[in-house]
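Reminder to self: tokens first, then the designed residues, so the page reads top to bottom the way the pipeline ran.
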């Protein structure tokens, strides 16, 4: 057994470092095609609305990576070293792998800050990391999903109960409709046998049961603007329907996301909240996981389990 630590590549979507980096970020998302002035102005306005020119979003990912490192150090001192790899911003996934190689790491684990697998989401991260690792001579194992990890479900349930308490006592809480949500993807994943939808519904059921929530539905949000159909119903369409049914209180639970970022802070906290208010619905949202200790424990446990299958054997 070597004394070198196992690398842990923590991957996420990425966010601009500052307002000045929005155009480069958007261009990368668009596969090298710069946004039109109108598209750039719209995205910039959304960031202005949520951060007011001060940009704390990147710190969320930094804290998560640091939290995973701290948890691994507690459980397996010296056995793991955490690196970041972002899909659309620096350090890119490939940069994280190169950093591991430069440190002499030859065995590593990759894990995405997204509990639910789709070939179009988590699968694309893994593909890039695997190709980069092969080029550097690093043997890498991956955590593909963890949508029913007990500590993840517990962390979500804690947030559900806490947020429901804002509505009042047990009687008021029973009148709240809980809407679980995740980022929509193109409908064509359904014909591919992709597990994304089933995993999201499984998380919703488990979290609702753990929190004692009986009245819930699943919906989609933040669909891309392309000509092909995306998974629905969209949360705005769902809110419109619920308003017509007489629902007056909604709790948003965006379980497809683990951090505070644009799809949560703008799409839900601003756009959906205003849409709901215009229809007489009180709209609240659960807190995001961010660097919650239970989530950090989840990621650390998964990383260690994946590493146990590497040639170096079980660590710590």
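Designed residues (316 positions):
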């Amino acid at each position: 057994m070597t004394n070198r630590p196992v690398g842990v590549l923590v991957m996420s979507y990425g966010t601009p470092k500052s307002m000045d980096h929005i155009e480069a970020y958007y261009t990368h998302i668009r596969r090298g095609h710069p946004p039109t002035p109108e598209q750039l102005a719209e995205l910039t306005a959304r960031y202005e609305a949520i951060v007011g020119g001060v940009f704390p979003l990147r710190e969320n990912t930094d804290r998560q990576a640091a939290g995973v490192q701290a948890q691994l150090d507690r459980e397996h001192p010296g056995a793991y070293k955490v690196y970041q790899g972002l899909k659309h911003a620096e350090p890119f996934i490939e940069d994280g792998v190169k950093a591991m190689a430069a440190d002499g790491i030859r065995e590593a684990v990759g894990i995405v800050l997204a509990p639910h697998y789709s070939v179009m989401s988590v699968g694309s991260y893994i593909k890039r990391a695997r190709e980069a690792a092969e080029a550097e001579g690093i043997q890498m194992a991956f955590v593909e999903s963890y949508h029913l990890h007990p500590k993840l479900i517990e962390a979500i349930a804690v947030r559900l109960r806490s947020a429901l308490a804002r509505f009042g006592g047990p009687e008021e809480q029973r009148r709240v409709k809980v809407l679980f949500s995740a980022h929509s993807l193109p409908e064509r994943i359904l014909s591919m046998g992709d597990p994304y939808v089933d995993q999201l519904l499984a998380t919703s059921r488990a979290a609702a049961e753990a929190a004692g929530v009986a009245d819930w539905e699943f919906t989609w949000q933040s669909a891309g603007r392309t000509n092909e159909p995306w998974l629905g119903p969209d949360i705005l369409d769902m809110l419109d329907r619920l308003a017509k049914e007489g629902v007056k209180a909604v709790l948003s639970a965006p379980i497809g996301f683990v951090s505070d970022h644009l799809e949560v802070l703008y799409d839900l906290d601003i756009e959906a909240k205003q849409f709901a208010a215009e229809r007489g619905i009180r709209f609240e949202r659960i807190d995001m996981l961010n660097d919650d200790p239970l989530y950090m424990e989840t990621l650390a446990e998964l990383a260690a389990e994946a590493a146990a299958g590497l040639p170096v054997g079980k660590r710590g």
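The chain has a mean pLDDT of 95.
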